[in-house]
Amino acid sequence: MQTPALPIVLVGCGAVSQFFYAPALTALEGAGTLKVEALVDPSAESLAKLAETFPNAARFARLEETPIDSRLVVVASPPKFHAPAAVHALTHGAAVLCEKPMADTVADAETILAAARSSGSLLAVGLYKRFFPACEALKGLLEKQPLGRLISFTVEEGGRFGWQAASDSFFRKSVTPGGVLLDIGVHVLDLLLWWLGEPETLLYRDDAMGGQEANCRLELAYAGGARGQVHLSRDWATRNCYTFRFERGVVRYKVNDAAHLEIQADGMPSLLSGTLQGPGGRPERSNPQSFIAQLQNIAATLQGRETLRVPGEEGIRSLQLIERCYRERSGLLEMPWLTPGETTTAQHLASL
Amino acid sequence: MKVALVGASGFVGTRLLECWKLGGGAFEVVPVVRSFSSLAVMARFELPWQVCDVMDAPALARAFAGCEAVVHAAIGDPSQIVGMAGSIYQAAASAGVRRLVVLSSSSVHGQAPEPGTDETSPLHEKHAMAYNTAKVRAERLLNQLAQDGRVEVVMLRPSVVFGPRSRWVADVATQLLAGSATLIREGEALCNTIYVDNLVHAIERALVVPEAKGEVFLVGDAERVTWREFYAAVAGALGVGMESVRSIEPPEFPKPLKERVGAITSRPAVQKLLPLFPSQLKRLTKVLLSNWRDTPMPNVWTLPPGTPAAVTEELSLLGQCQWRLPIGKAERILGYQPPVSFQEGMRRSLGWLQFVGYPVFDSTQKR
Known about the structure:
heterodimer; A: 352 residues; Rossmann fold; Dihydrodipicolinate Reductase, domain 2; six-stranded parallel β-sheet; 14 strands; 23% strand; globular; B: 367 residues; seven-stranded parallel β-sheet; two-stranded parallel ribbon; 11 strands
């Protein structure tokens, strides 16, 4: 017997919905997995734009007006609005997929988690990079250790900011409390927590001088002795590469290259760079296919066929680590091009 | 003085914001950018930014409200360079701005200016590079507009501006590390550098010196620097030997067929004649041009290729410069005295390279 299509309510019709959820949900609608029933956004313009993709979906300005019982509510509004929307949905009989970051503060994320626990409803968090075959392969390498123990790693991610922000609220510290760490750092730290667990110690610095950081550096140390360095930027192109040095080789993952890894085991004179393959030699999931796989996992979990890969308890962890970084910030990054006088003022602004 | 800064997210704009936010000077800055995404780096500070289309004079005028002066540091393609000059002037005039300081370029004289070139040298609009011609047209347009006397215009003509976030520093470093760095004729040509803080100094002087009104100034570092010296400073910090830098004669840069045909058909006289040709013929020509290959398919039976030389047309022309552009007029009228030496500017630039992740060994060491 065919499983009925999962009804979807999409909350927030901005850039992430337009560029990620719309094509992914369309693909899954075509496969009969789900059906987009309603779109919710206070902006009529944003609603109209997404309605071009889902013309049969009802449109609502507020979630409170929207029928949501027994549906999957996808919360893709700006982070500061995640908590009220997710809590409302969870307490009114809906399952929730909350886009990353789960909320803009740990306190809000805990409120969402509490609502999920008391309602017993499903709460997933949109950390789809865990579905990248390359990230799954790295988890296997770290756990099974075919190249030996992890010695150290470097993570370099980011470049000139290119996301088409619809307003300046994303850059106002009063509205969005963090910069690059709260933005791309959510994925980065989620992957590191998934792969390696909690770090024993951390040293965090950034370049915020009264506003949001555009560059940050994080040094991490783990119980097993591994050490790591993370450099994130929305200012200048990084190498966009994760490098893991094991006892018997080096593995590289290029950011967002979902099914590709580079491996240089000891004794190999050259680097092996290749695409991961599934059964029958079929190339593994691409980046967009991984985004779709995340939605498939949620649908299959609701139908009792799979286990949820990224539940709320997992989603909150990167947010907790980010807040720890901001709380334990070890001062301003050294900016060697500033004059001594400028450095003093910068340190003062950073300390306010 | 309250100053609107157009192009605040660019290389010069970013450093100007740092100087004015951290320097405790006399300038209260209103950054103006084209898109919200341009706010990412300046958001390190709390700033009263304005986001608007720089071609939209009424929107710009609203952004300039209450400002005594405007600094125009925005970049763009050739048509935008000319268009922006007009819209920014009109907006400044509408908003009651007293002075407009414009970052033009020494490229108005070409990348390899004739010996003897100074601010009085005549300009022309037949440059090999469209950028140069656009800068000439923008200057001419501003001079023409300024005749209404509503806004005082001061234009600065820097040449090779380097510093943190400069393409000259980052590109040279990338090429040195990749083994593709190339100099024209051993790099003996003159580089006409200006460290970005020296340009900031020139901008500050241009904003406040009354006698600068209506004038244009060449600005540069105090030192005479060759391209070889510039590359050597970066190479030394990266631990790359200068023997890995190739030296070549200036190559030719033939324009692709499509661009050559485009240049002909865009001429006003040709545009008038085009309706006389049958539309089928025009469509066929477009199809042929879009499928035209300027270079033949490569032969697979070859030795592994070496790293290609990294020389653009601009770099090739700059690599033939034999004239050190004079800064005497800026010294005399603006009181311009470059506060940072080339060596110190390079040391700070290398510190930035290290900051963004390049393998710099000794950026903290005085060079």
